[in-house]
Amino acid sequence: MCVYCFTEPSAETPVFVRKGEDVFLNVTIADVSTEDLVFWRFNKTVNLARFSPGIFVFDNYKERIEFLEKYSVKLKNLQEADSGVYTVLVSGDKEKQITGYKITVQDPVSPVKLSVDSVSNSSDWCNLTVSCRAQDSHINSTFRCDTHTHTCSQEGGERPQVTPSAADLHVYLSNGYIICNHSNQVSCTKDIKIIENVCPRHAGPESVSAGLSVCLLKTAVLSVGLIIMVAAVITVHLMEKLKKHK
Length: 246
Prior knowledge:
This protein is α+β, with helices and mostly antiparallel strands. Helix content is 18%, strand content 45%. The chain is built from two helices and 19 strands. It has helices spanning 195-198, 205-245; strands at residues 5-6, 12-18, 23-25, 29-30, 37-42, 46-51, 55-57, 65-67, 73-75, 84-91, 95-106, 113-121, 125-133, 138-146, 151-154, 159-162, 168-174, 177-183, 188-194. The strands form five sheets. The chain has a six-stranded mixed beta sheet, with no helix packed on it. The chain has a four-stranded antiparallel beta sheet with strand order 12-13-14-15, with no helix packed on it. The chain has a four-stranded antiparallel beta sheet with strand order 16-17-18-19. A hairpin with a 5-residue loop joins strand 16 (159-162) and strand 17 (168-174). The longest helix has 41 residues, at 205-245. The chain crosses the membrane at residues 220-239. Its main location: membrane.
């Protein structure tokens, strides 16, 4: 027979929270004795709340904690100082950890700017160098597009970089676009350049396909319209003949 039954694993679950937002910390505990105390604790030493079986909130969290079902809580307006480990413990004859969350509070990432530094062309190829800039970091990358195959490649492959603020700065190719991406676990910003606009003669096959699709669609619409017009003329002609015959 178990004394403490719980649904969450005892290992600490990583949770990322955007600065200033709230977080829900869920836990389910069954068969708690009336003599046992249940604590929410921060970094193993700071008590947030105690259930015994009433609820007592410690001073530092009186305005920042909201109670949900059973022993689950909502922490409000998290700041960077709130990053750390939050655990639920049952204290009886022995103290037992039921579950834990490792919370990391992050600022949203800064905007990024993707700029084309240089372009060189020939009848066979187009080379361009770009800069991907965030508030605290930047990376450069070079792309080469082939006229005959309508394909582009990135020299050295994709270029990811970890910034001083622990975000990812990344520049890469995707479906005829150069994308500069700045992200962490709670936010993301992007800036995009269309390769066709920078190297007009080196548009990828997806651009050609798109152009053909538009042309085919226009042809189909015109054909249908012409058929409808011819059918309308024949119908009117037959109706007039029918009237004269009567």
